[in-house]
Amino acid sequence: MTNEQHWSRGLYHLLGLDAQAVRPDIALLLSLLHPEDRLPSAEFRQFLLDGLLLDRRVRLIRPDGALRIVRSRAEVFVDPMGRPLRAAGALIDVSNEEALAKTRSAERRRRKALFEQAQVYAAWTDRVPIVEWAPEFRALTGLTNTELNDDWTASVAPQERQAVGDRLWALHASGKPFALTSTLRLADGTTRRFVLVSAVVRRSDGSIEGWASATYPQDVTPPRPAGRLREGLEQGIEPRHLRAARALLGWTLEDLARASGLSLSTVRRLEENPEAGRRSRPLALTALRQAGIRFSLVEGSRIAVALID
């Protein structure tokens, strides 16, 4: 090989280098790698001689000090005699993937600790009746997935099974967010009162994407809704709730429009049409919350609106 190199504009951008001022140089490229991720020179030369596919994730330190995580893919092409002719490679920025993976890992640890310490957990399902029960619920009740699919009310105290079963299906059928309190039989043989908060999450076309829920003991502080559950609960807030919130604040339509950054016509539609403004509703709700309004789901599918000083 002649050691002649060609770098794409994208590679220069990823490396944080000026294509007009820097010539392609493998030594320069390797010098930008984190010291712990650099291949020993002997190993790198052997890679070229063997013509092996190289696929690694490495840390890249740009001249401005920024750290990026990249996936390095390289391959050597050889002639019929096995002598290297040329090499081709690519660096793919996966920093966001790495950050997302770390965030998800931290969230899993947080959820595990929350369940182990307070028996609080969140769940998601894309079908009702449920066919794959949350592992936390199975651990809580000591029942297997098969046993729950055969009769999920086996997790409920005998004296409440019929009423809770009927109530749950009626609330699900309403299509609205709901809260349901029942006594569960736990794996250790004791019983405890738990609250189930559930909300259907709909796509922009109104079709159902799935159901998000949170389950927690009645005697602990309710967890703050987050993620898909928060999304579903907000979708369940109706025009009458918005009007009630605005009345508690003494706001006009113009006041809400100004606070939310929405147009007056958009705010008016939100207070008149339950199906309007799926994208703009969160902005209106944020403005109302910042002004002291709290929306709370109480037993059943009722949403309470209050002004918190």
Q: What can you see in these coordinates?
A:
There is one protein chain. With 309 residues, the chain is an alpha+beta fold. The protein has twelve helices and nine strands. The chain has helices at residues 9-15, 26-31, 41-50, 95-118, 135-141, 145-150, 161-174, 227-235, 239-249, 253-260, 264-270, 281-290, and strands at residues 54-61, 67-78, 84-93, 121-125, 178-185, 191-202, 208-217, 293-297, 303-307. The strands form three sheets. A four-stranded antiparallel sheet has the order 4-7-6-5, sandwiched between helices. The protein has a three-stranded antiparallel sheet with strand order 1-2-3, with helices on both faces. A hairpin with a 5-residue loop joins strand 1 (54-61) and strand 2. The N and C termini lie far apart (75 Å). The model has no long low-confidence stretch (mean pLDDT 88).
